[in-house]
Amino acid sequence: MATITEPRTVRRTPPPEGGRRGPGRETLAAWVLVLPFVVLFLAFTAGPVLGSLGMSFTDTRQRDLRTPFAVEGVGFGNYVKALQDETFRKAAFNTAYFVVVGVPLTLVVALAAAVLLDRGVKRFQALFKVGYYLPVVTSIVAIAVIWRFVLAPDAGLLNTVLGWFGIDGPNWLGSKTWAMPSLIAMAIWRNFGSAMIIFLAGLQGIPQSVEEAGQLDGAGSWQRFRHLILPLLRPTILFTSVTTGIGYLQFFEEPLVMTQGGPLNSTISVSMYTYQQFGFGNYGLATSMAYLLFVVIAVVTFIQFRLLREK
What we know:
Largest sheet: none
Strand content: under 5%
């Protein structure tokens, strides 16, 4: 004969007086742990960013550092002055040239190297990975100095090799025609290893059954790559294009070390010109240029997300 058990009565702990629970120990401990980060972030990141933003709307110069409260507001005057500056417009054009040509070529070279490592090279694959990635972790200043010797007009390695075939090589870094392509070539050589590693990880994450299904349907190698592999690599392409584009929009060390912005400002970049204005003591104007570059980076990144996001 079945017995009927009475339901248990759940005893709840009454809330503290006043009907509210006080902050738990876990919450208090969490705030204690994040407090150092919050303090450092406010002091060394948020504070300087907000301060520089306010500075861009003033006529702050080097002489005003002793009397920071004596500066006058100029509204958007610094931004207008920057956009009307012929050298700044030249630097903006050079930066756009560097990005529009350099980013696609870097991604194409990186993707091609990743495909070769994933499909063709089976032996010593780790050695190739290290060799391609080594320039990424090498100091850009050291790389720029080496490339200056490689591209030297008289005794440079490149012109010496061209001379073996009877070709008189140009003054690569001293020519308005060849200076920027030389910087782009160096940037591609230095940066494609990072994108290659990411592309290689993306390729190895694609199931083998995808290509097998394409083979069964009679698709060739290029058709499988174009219609099956590339669409699956869209998130990887988005990530590499955004990170590479942001880096190329801020290119600075290459012209500073290799060409000093010359010849005739043909390789000066926005970051380099902003740095020069800081050196001249034009702090208000320089910060406005920096924020113009920030806006361009945000817009370009937004466009990349719109074009390359998964559909």
